[in-house]
Design a protein that fits this description.
single chain; alpha+beta; twelve-stranded antiparallel β-sheet; two-stranded antiparallel sheet; 8 helices; globular
């Protein structure tokens, strides 16, 4: 998600310079509605939250809990849920997000994807479609789509070797044909023009900007000294926790830098900015009382000084985005989702689904 929105800012900036337009008319927001899809039910599995973790979580839920105890509980539950989802044998997620980016030019993008893991094998797919863009006073959605539409898919059978197809960047690259849709896989896409690469584990962690472990929820290294507005509630009737917190961007001290350094370094490199930084980062996670995630959502804003051409002035860039991921832990629920697509309606098992997703011999 983050990389897609950077690309909108930087390349549309180059485009506006090349056509030398003036003025700024905000592009029309996209007509594409958020996906109407509910998360799966609570899986019939024993609680995976450890007793030591539960003690910290319960302390934060107490009506007399201090702000420090609430922060500790929120991050303890966040980290426990992260561990549990990485250790699960079967996991299916659907993500739906998008955002707005502006420099001298502006654009909206919708990004959708899905992820399916069965033991040590997984397939993931992400598709980004520019839905509206302008270059100053000139509407340029088609031009922007030719430059910026995104497409990638990844497959591994052992968490050691990773195969990826990805649309190449640039005006003369073979751009993907992608369109958002309302049924699984929620986009139509042609991968035939993508470039194929293979990575070992260390190479994949570097390429994907993975902080610690493949499949982690975030490459932010959160700590209690750099978050604010921490909230944790438990709904016993629904067997559900809800946690919320924000990155404290008003106090960009050592604790803040320790959280964002790794993720921010990647964004600064991609955007060729030395001062890109977060202005807003909010997290909301729903977690079943046995530790399995129901949904994970983020809202994010960054700002940067962008110097694309050395002899031209630095230009201010901003990006606002949001993303929602819903989780499924039961194969029968997964099958109900993928049955919407005729390519998968005859699939009966998780192994068959992975075999159908694999695109190479």
């Amino acid at each position: 998600m983050k990389k897609f929105l950077i690309v909108i800012s930087v390349i549309l900036l180059i485009a506006i310079i090349s056509v030398a337009t003036v003025g700024c008319k905000k592009p029309t927001p996209p007509d594409i509605k958020p996906l109407d899809i509910d998360a799966g039910e609570m899986p019939d599995m024993a609680c995976q939250i450890l007793p030591a973790e539960l003690a910290i979580i319960d302390a934060g839920l107490d009506e007399d809990a201090t702000d420090a105890e609430k922060k500790a509980a929120v991050l303890e539950l966040f980290n426990a849920a992260d561990r549990i989802q990485r250790e699960a044998d079967l996991l299916f997620t659907v993500s739906d997000g998008g955002g707005y980016a502006k420099t001298g030019a502006e654009g909206y993008m919708t990004v959708r994807g899905f992820y399916f893991r069965n033991e040590d094998a997984y397939y993931s797919q992400s598709v980004g479609q520019v839905t509206s863009a302008n270059l100053g006073t000139i509407a340029a959605t088609d031009y922007a789509r030719n430059l910026l539409d995104q497409l990638s898919r990844t497959y591994t059978s052992d968490m050691q070797t990773f195969y990826r197809d990805k649309a190449e960047d640039g005006e003369h690259a073979n751009r993907p044909n992608v369109t958002a849709s309302e049924s699984f896989p929620y986009t139509s896409a042609d991968f035939s023009g993508c470039a194929s690469e293979t990575f070992n584990l260390d190479e994949w962690k570097e390429e994907s900007r993975i902080l610690n472990e493949v499949g982690e929820l975030s490459n932010f290294d959160f700590n209690t000294d750099a978050i604010k507005n921490a909230l944790i509630v438990k709904n016993n009737a629904e067997n559900l926790y809800r946690i919320e917190f924000e990155l404290d961007t008003s106090n960009k001290n050592e604790a803040y830098d320790n959280v964002v350094d790794f993720a921010r370094e990647g964004l600064r490199e991609a955007s060729k900015s030395t001062d890109l930084d977060y202005e807003v980062y909010k997290v909301v996670v729903e977690i079943w009382t046995n530790g399995y995630i129901r949904s994970f959502s983020t809202v994010e804003n960054w700002e940067a000084s962008l110097k694309v051409v050395s002899f031209l002035p630095t230009i201010h860039g901003v990006s606002d985005s949001s993303n929602l991921v819903v989780y499924f832990w039961d194969w029968d629920e997964v099958k109900d989702v993928i049955d919407d697509c005729e390519d998968y309606e005859e699939i009966e098992t998780a192994d068959e689904f992975l075999d159908a997703l694999k695109w190479f011999e």
